[in-house]
Amino acid sequence: MNFDEVFERKQTNSMKWDLLKERYQSEDLWPMWVADMDFQAPQPVLDAMRQVVDHGIFGYHARPDSLREVTAGWLKKRFKWEVQKEDFVFTPGVVPAISHLIKTFTAKGDQVIIQTPVYYPFYSLIKNSERTLVKNPLKETDDGFVMDLDDLEEKMKAGARMLLLCSPHNPIGRVWKKEELRKVGELAEKYNVLVVSDEIHADLILKGEHVPFAKVNNDLDVSVITCMAPSKTFNLAALQLSYVIFQDSEDRTSYEKHLSNEFVGIDNPFATVAAEAAYLHGEPWLEALLEYIKGNVELVKQDIETNMPKIKVVEPEGTYLIWLDFREFGMSGLELQEWLRKEGNLALSDGHIFGPEGSGFARMNLACPRSHVEEGLRRLNQAYNSYKVK
Ligand SMILES: Cc1ncc(COP(=O)(O)O)c(C=O)c1O
């Protein structure tokens, strides 16, 4: 485990490295945008995948029961959460899983709540399926961003059918506390709102602990469906394996039926062995990764606090993403991004794509070697100083 090691990703069909020109009209930008890691997956994962290659036969794959057992074992170990192996439905990614959840459990026109600014595909998932998007913007307080529970209650009371929760929250980096999740659970029970909890970042906790929404609200009469995956945790996104966890067997059957009608569900053998190897043998790698990410966060914080005081850091409690607040510069979302690209040669994720509440912010990906973060900071300083000079 040497997270300092630099791997060439250019010309490997990497979105983060090879789509810069297409997206930003320049290949020279320093990529700290797309949320994947510039680290190799844990060694046991690579070994398991190599065995599949050596076998060399890639015919139709039957997902083994062991994947359910191993996944349940991981959830028990990491979150003390007991999930029965039949409660899992495997899906080819969390975003498609949510799209199918929306289609299975809501009707056209139904209101779906999101807590903005939020992972931007949530917007299109709701709009593309012709549901009504309802926003419950996060509230900024002296203690950072929190949920606006009064507003959430209003929105639920007004007839929302589903809440799409992001826990931990991307891009803010909040790891929601048990008490916050409990209050949401109580509201969902009161107004009969189905909660779909996207917990893809659950393993990436830097401060505090992740509490599965379903676990903390277990005793309430509330419908909860949880989406998780090994993809963010172990850098396996391209293998397209995720899973949905149901509390209610009838809901699960409806969803399975929907997926079967849509012909969704065949896995590939790489994803299966990678997920099993990661969950069985990847924990030491994950623990070391989290320490490394904390070091990257610290580096960014210190440099910004010392040298770029007009930028404010929203310190992440979870995820490997850091939310940077440039609002003091008074630029529009577009101006800010153009400035970062032109003066810093830096590709961060534009804050405004997460919703208008994200305007004036940018998201920086810290799942990369320290030298990569240092170069990113050098470029950020360059942009910052060009601004001061003007
Ligand atoms: C909250 C959240 N959900 C889902 C995804 C993507 O999931 P997948 O690649 O499994 O579709 C991401 C990726 O950044 C994310 O941040």
TrEMBL record:
<keyword id="KW-0663">Pyridoxal phosphate</keyword>
<dbReference type="InterPro" id="IPR015422">
    <property type="entry name" value="PyrdxlP-dep_Trfase_small"/>
</dbReference>
<dbReference type="InterPro" id="IPR027619">
    <property type="entry name" value="C-S_lyase_PatB-like"/>
</dbReference>
<protein>
    <recommendedName>
        <fullName>cysteine-S-conjugate beta-lyase</fullName>
        <ecNumber>4.4.1.13</ecNumber>
    </recommendedName>
</protein>
<feature type="domain" description="Aminotransferase class I/classII large">
    <location>
        <begin position="45"/>
        <end position="380"/>
    </location>
</feature>
<dbReference type="InterPro" id="IPR051798">
    <property type="entry name" value="Class-II_PLP-Dep_Aminotrans"/>
</dbReference>
<keyword id="KW-0456">Lyase</keyword>
<dbReference type="InterPro" id="IPR015424">
    <property type="entry name" value="PyrdxlP-dep_Trfase"/>
</dbReference>
<dbReference type="Pfam" id="PF00155">
    <property type="entry name" value="Aminotran_1_2"/>
</dbReference>
<dbReference type="GO" id="GO:0047804">
    <property type="term" value="F:cysteine-S-conjugate beta-lyase activity"/>
</dbReference>
<comment type="similarity">
    <text>Belongs to the class-II pyridoxal-phosphate-dependent aminotransferase family. MalY/PatB cystathionine beta-lyase subfamily.</text>
</comment>
<dbReference type="InterPro" id="IPR004839">
    <property type="entry name" value="Aminotransferase_I/II_large"/>
</dbReference>
<dbReference type="InterPro" id="IPR015421">
    <property type="entry name" value="PyrdxlP-dep_Trfase_major"/>
</dbReference>
